[in-house]
Queue: 3 jobs
Job 1
Amino acid sequence: MEDKTASSPNPSPLLWMILAILACGVLATLAYKLWPLLYPEVTEVAALDTGCDLRLSPCEVGFRDGGRVLLDIRPAGIPPATPLQLHVLVRGIEAESVEVDFAGVDMYMGFNRVALVEERPGHYQGSGMIPVCVRDRMTWEARVLLQTPRGLLAAPFRFDTVR
């Protein structure tokens, strides 16, 4: 006669619970360790220039120490779901790296950050794209992130897109 209880093919529910708790712990540790890489602490944010329309022309903002950042996005109008050429001019700031982070102001649109390449001293460029939004009009913030010896600086630029 066979003993069916001796070799049960199904692991116990307690084992599954222990594995689930361990998996949650690993995921929480990864999130804790990776969070500063995805969202680093900003040392200074430049004042937003609300009078400049980035869809029509390049815009420039300044920092307290006199450093300046100019952002130019092409094609004009900044159409969604279209490759965009990003040009950044940095003056009076020793930047180790430059990135542009696109974020929806009123709606989370996912992680969208582009690392730029230094073409010549102070001149950075790269290409990126913003997604199409379900709204007819969407307000975006393109934040130029400058890694410097004194910390991370952020230069915000806002613009609207229209479907």
Job 2
Amino acid sequence: MDAHSILIVGDEPDMRTALIHALDGAGYSVETASSGFEALEKFKKDKFSLVITDVNMSEMSGFEVLEEIKRMSSEVPVALITANGTVDNAVEAMKKGAADYILKPFSDETIQLAVRKAIKNRNGRAKISFQNGYSRKNQKSRRIITQDPKLLNILKLAENVAQSNATILIQGESGTGKEMVASYIHHHSSQKDGPYVAVNCASLPDGLAESELFGHEKGSFTGALNRKIGKFELANHGTIVLDEISEMPMPIQAKLLRALQERIIDRVGGSRPVPIDVRIIAISNIDLKKAVKGGKFREDLYYRLNVIPITIPPLRKRRDDILLLTDHFLKKYGSSNGTRVKKMSDSAISTLLNLEWRGNVRELENTVQRAILLSDGEVILPGHLFLGEVESEGNDSVRIRPGLSVREMERKLIFMTLKDVNENRTHAAEMLGISIRTLRNKLHKYKEEGK
């Protein structure tokens, strides 16, 4: 059996030497890297059973190394080493997927035990993953369920264009499966073994969007204590998905345009441009042409993104998929709840087929999951679908009465809509005809007011 190969990452030579001494004598094959950047390059080229990284490094922190390794290969365990261990840091490390959190100074026995445990757990996870068919290769084909000719043609187009490096714009209503199509494209591309980084542009922090996307240098602004690697660099040699692209601030749109045109980015506070090799997939739940006409989106950027346009049809225009998806969700949630898979009554099926499904596949999935929980027997009836509950509850309905302010009506309407779509803010914003950023700001204001 070949020796397990371990990658050691740290900018302190003494620490690297101590780890080599502990592991070399135990029969492990050891490779070292003096920085996070060097480690990621080595990780892309070679196979490692385990990565051990120092937390505090000058260029890239151990937490950043952990996140990037997990993006490239979720199966490879990563152990963190630190001289400043706290409970909060340990909890954060485990939440991010660390296999272990080791404190300095450490003994040879401590390191060897941690390595044996991490590799043993890794082998166990790999076995379970294989037996249950959850490998990345299987996942790409089982997530998109359709028999609709139009959507099948779209998937065929997606598979064909995946081999190119062309930029792709996916548009469609909320809940139609745009993110799944983006993932489908990545896993059919020549860069399928590279990172897949998804960014929701509407969720980028105000004032920090540029730093999140393109990174920043140490000291470039107040609070920039270390260099930060942005999403574009993290996606290098892979795919970056820009969801809700219409919500990207105008100044950032200009920088994205440059990245598309010249294939370089600039870190905030950086003195040299950084070359990138990344496939860009943009996603929008609104018509970007209309956003351009309304002055909310750059026309030149729109044409740069719209090289390969893909539009996902809503569920109401592919009725044949409703029963197919319903059957899939019945099996998915029936088995996960530990009960026998339930059946839809003819009347429940008729109800499902006659609904508009403004929330598309996401709304159908929520409806089926809820019906399974509400039904006592093995057959689901129309009443179990629990549709229209908001309208039936007088206390939550928006009723006009003398003295009710427009602001209060707006607040009631927003919360009623959020309840109707199971707190999905993107879908709620679309139904209300406002941007996700506007909705978020209003909710923040309500919270401050204690409402």
Job 3
Amino acid sequence: MLSSERGLFISVDGPYGVGKTSTVHTLARLLSAEGHEVHTTAEPSEGPIGALARELTETVTGTALACLYAADRYHHLKEEILPNVDAGRVVITDRYIPFALVMQQLDGVDPDFIWRINAKATKPNLAVILDATPVVVGQRLTERGPHNRLQKLPSSSRIEWHHYRDVTRQLINAGWTVQQIDCSHTTVSQVARMVRDRLAEAESA
């Protein structure tokens, strides 16, 4: 898979505090050191719709915010992700559709609606779902403080954890290629190597 001339698209998702951003950058360095051209990105994107989504996350809720995030996702794909994949790069995004399926459920949006508005978005070649026990996730959330209004809700870390478990099963049933990794007692470097090894296995299969 790593030798693909068209490049690759990898998404990294998981509960807040599980190490998504660190994993993205560590994996990028690992693949770059092995000679691959890598492009990292994140959602919300740095584009104009992503900037609006970040600005309004604390004040706009439910369906309206879900649609704004979906609009940013399609724009992100068209303007940044797919052009880099087509140029032969490995694109790694910090958060993608799994994030939407979890966080927007926490915001009261029907999951079927979330699936529908994201139905035309490109599936990644590999969707990495980072996991950790609710206790570990809760501790990290306490240490870092809530990132947005949804993480201020009582028991938000446990609810988010359960949603990610459900979403992982949904993704697999929908035909996504998913790698779930328990990060409770695993270093970021180990996680990055696990992802690299999964990509190499897919290439040789």
